[in-house]
Model the fold of this input.
Amino acid sequence: MAKQMRQLGVTSRLFGGEMVKTPNFLVLAGSAADGSVASLAGLPLAQMPGGGAFAEKYRVRFNEEVQVYAPFAYDGAMTLIEAMKRADSSDPAKVLPVLAKIERAGVTSARIAYDDRGDLREGTITVYEVTGGGWQVLEAVGP
Done:
């Protein structure tokens, strides 16, 4: 779409959500990506409390750079596992009440905790812009 916008003479920026902020977008859009903006839940990997250590372990294990949602999937799995341990069960009826009240440190946040609707209490959104062929942080909004 970024290429098509340029081909049609559209000079406005392309704004997108999480699925735009990928290395593949940069490859497919080429120089037409410059100026594009995307938002992504959470802090940039380098700013996550456990981001550096996670990235190193990920590279060693998978021989590639961290995928966009990998730290969040890891935290989600580890939080669920912790809730199952605390509930001493894998029965959803026993685990879900524990999960709703859990507070723990993770890769993505120093405090993973949920509100009464099940949303993260301290969620962050980061806005990125493509500059010089790469994603750059514009601003992180949140606690």
Observations:
- The helical segments are 2-7, 23-29, 51-62, 70-87, 92-101.
